[in-house]
From TrEMBL:
Residues 63-250 form the Integrase catalytic domain. It comes from the Eukaryota. Coiled coil: none annotated. It comes from Trichonephila inaurata madagascariensis. This is Integrase catalytic domain-containing protein. One of its GO terms (molecular function) is nucleic acid binding. InterPro entries: Integrase_cat-core, Integrase_H2C2, RNaseH-like_sf, RNaseH_sf. SUPFAM superfamilies: Ribonuclease H-like (SSF53098). GO terms for biological process: DNA integration. Pfam families: Integrase_H2C2, rve.
C-alpha cells in the first residue's frame, strides 16, 4: 500500500468518528501527524465523503420560479388536481379541482371514487361539457392523473399534458393555491363540507382578483354574478337585442389580454455553483420521515441538465431516468 493511501485511510478513520468538517479535522490531524501537502490532502479526502452531503446540508438549493407561457384564449390552459381524503360527507371523500389559467375560474367536484376512469368521467362531465376541450392540461404525478386512460383521453382529444416534477407543488401553484383558500373557507362553516362547498365557490368566483382587477365571474360571463344577499331591483333598461349583445360581447372579448399570475413569494434564490458542472447529485427526500433519516439520497448520475431541471439515472429498479427540479438537488 502506498504512503498516500495509508495517509488517506488514517485521515478517513479519524474523520469518520464524528464527521467534524474540514477545519476541525485539520486541527485534529495536525496535532498528531505531518507530511507534505497535508492540508490540501485532508480537504480533498473530506470532500469525497458521501455521508456528509447526504446528512449535513446547511444551504438548500432554491431555484428561481419560471413563468408559464401566457395563454391567449379563455379555457385554453387548465390545471387539475385531487384534494383529500376528507371525512365522509354525503358519501364523498375527495375533491377533483380544476382552474382555468386565463380567467382563474375554479371548478370543484366532490367524488367518492378516485380511480382513473372516475376522474376522467368527472372531468369530461363537469369541465369539458361546459367549457370545451382545453389545449393544455397541467397535472402532478398522482397515479390517477398518470394512467393509460387519461393518456388515451389526451390522444383522442388532442390535449397537450404538462406533468410537474415530483414533490414540486409550485409547478402546479395555481391549483395548489386554490386548495389552500378553499380549505380555509370551508373550515369557517359549521355545516357539512358538501353543503358549504357551493356557497364557498360562489364567494370565490365573485371575489376580485388583484392581478386581474376583476372577478373570475366577470372574466367568464362579462358581468358580476348576483349573490344570495343582494336585493333584486327592477331594471329600467329596454331588453337588448341578442345579436347586438353577442356582437358587443365578442368585441369586448377580443380586447381582453392575458394577465400573468402574480408571484407572492419573497424567498431568496440560491443555487450551488457546482451544480453547473457536477457529474453526480444528491436528491432531497421529501415528505414525512423519521428524525434520524438522512435528508438527501444519492449520489445519482446526471444524464442531462437545464437551468431548471436535471435528468438523473435511477439507482434502483429497471434502468431509467427521472426528471428532478433544481430546488431538490445538492452536490
Amino acid at each position: 500500500m502506498s504512503v498516500e493511501k495509508k495517509y488517506g485511510l488514517m485521515c478517513r478513520s479519524l474523520y469518520n468518528l464524528s464527521h467534524p468538517g474540514i477545519c476541525a479535522t485539520k486541527r485534529l490531524i495536525q496535532d498528531r501527524f505531518v507530511w507534505p501537502s497535508m492540508l490540501k490532502d485532508i480537504a480533498k479526502w473530506i470532500r469525497c465523503c458521501i455521508p456528509c452531503p447526504r446528512c449535513k446540508v446547511r444551504s438548500h438549493t432554491v431555484s428561481p420560479i419560471q413563468p408559464f407561457v401566457s395563454t391567449v384564449e379563455r379555457f385554453q390552459h387548465v390545471h387539475i388536481d385531487l384534494l383529500g381524503p376528507f371525512l365522509p360527507s354525503d358519501g364523498f371523500t375527495f375533491l377533483l379541482t380544476s382552474i382555468d389559467r386565463y380567467t382563474r375560474w375554479p371548478e370543484v367536484i366532490p367524488v367518492c371514487d378516485i380511480s382513473a376512469e372516475a376522474v376522467a368521467k368527472s372531468f369530461i362531465a363537469n369541465w369539458i361539457s361546459r367549457f370545451g376541450v382545453p389545449a393544455i392540461i397541467t397535472t402532478d404525478q398522482e397515479g390517477q392523473l398518470q394512467s393509460r386512460l387519461l393518456y388515451s383521453l389526451k390522444q383522442m382529444l388532442g390535449i397537450q399534458r404538462i406533468r410537474t416534477t415530483p414533490y414540486h407543488p409550485s409547478s402546479n401553484g395555481m391549483v395548489e393555491r386554490l386548495h389552500h383558500t378553499l380549505k380555509q373557507a370551508i373550515r369557517c362553516h359549521d355545516t357539512k363540507w358538501t353543503e358549504s362547498l357551493p356557497v364557498v365557490l360562489q364567494g370565490l368566483r365573485a371575489c376580485i382578483k388583484e392581478d386581474l382587477n376583476a372577478s373570475c365571474a366577470e372574466m367568464v360571463f362579462g358581468k358580476t354574478i348576483v349573490l344570495s344577499e343582494e336585493f333584486f331591483e327592477p331594471s329600467s333598461q329596454s331588453p337588448n337585442d341578442p345579436s347586438e349583445f353577442l356582437l358587443r360581447l365578442r368585441e369586448t372579448s377580443r380586447t381582453l389580454k392575458p394577465t400573468p399570475a402574480s408571484c407572492h413569494s419573497s424567498t431568496t434564490c440560491f443555487v450551488h455553483t457546482a451544480l453547473k458542472t457536477c457529474s453526480h447529485v444528491f436528491v432531497r427526500v421529501e415528505g414525512l420521515k423519521p428524525s434520524l433519516t438522512a435528508p438527501y439520497q444519492g449520489p445519482f448520475e446526471v444524464l442531462s441538465r437545464t437551468d431548471k431541471h436535471f435528468a438523473i439515472k435511477k439507482m434502483t429498479g429497471p434502468p431509467r431516468s427521472a426528471l428532478i427540479d433544481l430546488s431538490q438537488l445538492f452536490c
